[in-house]
Structures are given as C-alpha cells and as structure tokens.
Amino acid sequence: MELDTLKDAFDRVVKRQKLSSFRSQEIVDQVGHEIEQALAKIKAINDPLSPVHLKSILSELKLKLNTVGPLNLLEGLQKERNINLSKYPKLLEKSFSPDISKAYRDVDFDFHLVNQIVANHFYQQGLFDLGDCLIDEAGEPEAIAIRSHFLEMYQVLEALKVKNLGPALNWITLNREKLNQNGSMLELKLHRLQFVEIVKKGTKADALSYARTHLAPFASLHMNEFQKLVVCIIWVGKLDSCPHAELMAPTHWEEFTQEIIKQFCSLVGQSYWSPLSVAIAAGIEGLPTLLKLANVMAAKRQEWQEMKQLPVPVELGKELQFHSIFVCPVSRDQGSEENPPMLMPCQHVLCNQSIMKLSKNTSRTFKCPYCPTEASAAQCRQLHF
Predict the structure, then answer these.
(1) What is the C-alpha separation between 60 and 48, in angstroms, rounded?
(2) Entry pTM
(3) Where are the domains of the chain?
(4) Are 38 and 59 in contact (CB under 8 A)?
C-alpha cells in the first residue's frame, strides 16, 4: 500500500513536471513569435532608418510582451513545480525510515569467516585485485585457495566472448568424469556451438567431418539433437530456410556461458550466487518487516534484541528459501536437530519435544491434537530437513 501511494505521488509529480515544461515551451514560443513578427515589420519598412517607424514597432512589441507577461508566467510555473517536488521527498521520508540501524542486532560474527566470504565474493565476480587486497590487509592467506579456480573460469569466459571454445573444451575434458556425474551436457553443447559456427561460415564437407568426429559419440544418447544438427548440413549457404534455425540463435552462447559458470562453481563447492550476495538480497527483502518490528517493540518499551526468536515471520521469496522450515503447531517452536519434526501414523507432524510431553513416556499413547488417532512416541518417525 505504501508503494502504491508513493507511485501515485510520483506520477503526479511527473505529470505536473511535463505540464509545466509544455506550458513553459508555449510561452517561449509565443515570445519568439512576437519578436519574429516585429523583425519582419522592421525589414518591410521602406526607410529602415526612420526612428518613428522603429519606435512604433518596438513599442507595439513591448506592449504585447507585457500583456503576455512571460517572466511572471515562467516564475509561477517554476514555483508550482518546486512545491510539488518538495512534497515528494517529505513523503519518501515519511514512508521509509532512513535509519536502518534500528533493525540491527548485536551478533557475534566470526570475522575470519566473514573475511573469507567477502574475498570469495570478489573472486567470484572477477574482482581479483580487490580480493587480493582484502586478503593481504586482513591476513587471510588461506582464502586465496579459491582464487585460481575463479581465475581459470574468467579466462574461459573471456575466450567465450570472442567465440573461442578452446579453453572451455580443455576444462571440460579435464573434468569430464565429474561433469558426467552431475548430469552435465556441457561437452555436447560446446560441440553444438562449434558445429553451428562451421555451418554458418564453412563448407558442407567441413561440417560433415566435424559431425562425424565430435557429434557422433553423442548420437546414441541424444539422437533427436544429433539428427537436427546433421540436417543443418543440407542447408549450408541457405540457412534462412533451415527448419532448425533456432539452433543458430545467439542465445545459445549466453546459455552456455551461464552453464559454464554454474558447473565451475559446483565443482569447487561454491554456489552460483555468492553467500554475500544472497545474504544482502535476503536482508533487503526482510528489512521492512524488521524495521516495523523494531518500531513496535520500541513503542511498547521492549528490547527486541534480547529475543531469541522473532515473534513474526519474515517472508522471503522462493529464490531465497533453501531449506525446509517446520514450526511445531503445539509448542510453536521451530524444528531443529535437537528438536526434530516427527511424523505420526496419522501423517500429522509435531516436534519431538511436544510428542514426548504428550506421551509422558515412550510407552504411553496419546491423542493427536488434530484428529482422533492415538499413537505412542515409538510409532512416530523422525523427518530430516
């Protein structure tokens, strides 16, 4: 709702600004028109040196300009525009808290780990100078171990920018076994890209030779893909009519580049999105809820930093949800390794501590809080996150 209100206010400011600009241009054009008319009259005078005629024309121009009042009109439009512009920042300040430190909680950080996370983020983004500087100044020499992997990755990516597949092929060949275990099709995609370039720029003989050497080994597992590529050989020189023109799309290079990055990160035990970028994205998304909670707690004179668990959920997008979270419907405690969720025979789930309290001991049966089924603690099965 706050964003809708801000958008409406912003739209009003934009509309007023456009109207003001339009009216200002009209006034300037009108003044220019009056001046041009006066100049035309002066040029039409038989005796241009006659002071009587010149004085009457200039007096008439002055009268018309005074009637229009361009300065007063422009000043009025500017004043009105400034009023609207000055209101919008006030509305922004009212809607958004500029002091985000209210949502800050004292947390014991492992600065050694934080330094490694930041350094790894710089390396993953290709900012090797920044990563090296941080490692030197923070004294974290062990964090440099990941540097060589990302350096190799960016060497491959730089080659791909000029459609040089050699470095990528060398890396794929060295890591073929691991890539196959991950179910990766990088090698096939690479040869597909190279084959398409030959089809575009080479001859039918070159394309056929490449297909026999590099694509044929994939035919048994990817027959449909193999057949589409081979058919393209027929259309060398007239690819616009090829029934499989989608294989020529430049987006395949972009997709291959993204797949290379994902597989590189996977093989070195890193996620596609660096932990630092994920933490910042989650913090930005959850910040409004935390700020609102801090304000409510402050109004009640309660210190929310002393709470071990937030009293309200912080909703994050699916892209920021990596693990299952279970909250016991009885105790309202969040499931953990010490207090795992337990599946009852009736398929309802409670935390282990709740089940132990309800059963009193392992032999006593108890009634499920949500259905008539009775069960014992021994009949419940632990669920794993």
Answers:
(1) 17
(2) 0.60
(3) 3-95, 115-268, 276-306, 323-384
(4) no
